């Protein structure tokens, strides 16, 4: 009797789980593709590239100045006093420290490049998330995955909502 009760309970559990799974509506997007094909992201990337190019030019000027000062120091080291040599060396070292500080300010972990990238892409990401949320609610999706994260091993193409998100984003 008890074995039969366990079997019936187990059978009910299995059938109710499979019935639930049939009603589950799932979709996925590819966030990398969305970003790369988004007109807003392309424009943000152009802006960031231009700003970064300007920073590279500034860094190059600093490098050139350090190289010039170092060459002057080496060329004049035989003709100048120890005191002047020490001053020149100190000047070269100071410029080099400024250069390193500049690099850190721009390209460091939380530097201007990182901050500017966040400023430019956050509104786009927020907009993409809002579109995904809207599609999910209007089309009654239970779950929408992101294929760019590598968690989807297989999915049918008709579950891909990437083009739908891109159409709405690029309108």
Characterization of this structure:
- The protein has 171 residues and is mainly alpha-helical.
- The chain has one domain (25-169).
- Helices cover 75% and strands 5% of the residues.
- The chain has helices at residues 2-23, 31-37, 39-76, 82-107, 112-138, 162-169; strands spanning 26-29, 143-146.
- The chain has a two-stranded parallel sheet.
- Helix 2 runs parallel beside helix 6 (162-169), helix 3 (39-76) packs antiparallel against helix 5 and helix 5 (112-138) packs across helix 6.
- The model is unreliable at 3-8 (pLDDT under 50).
User: How much is the average pLDDT?
Assistant: 88
Low-confidence stretches: 3-8
CA gyration radius, whole angstroms: 30 Å
**Helical coverage, percent range:** over 70%
How is the biggest beta sheet arranged? 2 strands, parallel
When the domains are counted, the total is 1
Q: How many strand segments?
A: 2
- Termini separation: 65 Å
Q: In terms of structural class, how would the helical and strand content be classed? A: mainly alpha
Task: Give the oligomer, counting copies of the same chain as homo and different chains as hetero.
Answer: single chain
Helix/strand order: HEHHHHEH
The share of residues in extended strands comes to under 5%
Give the strand line-up of the largest sheet: 1-2
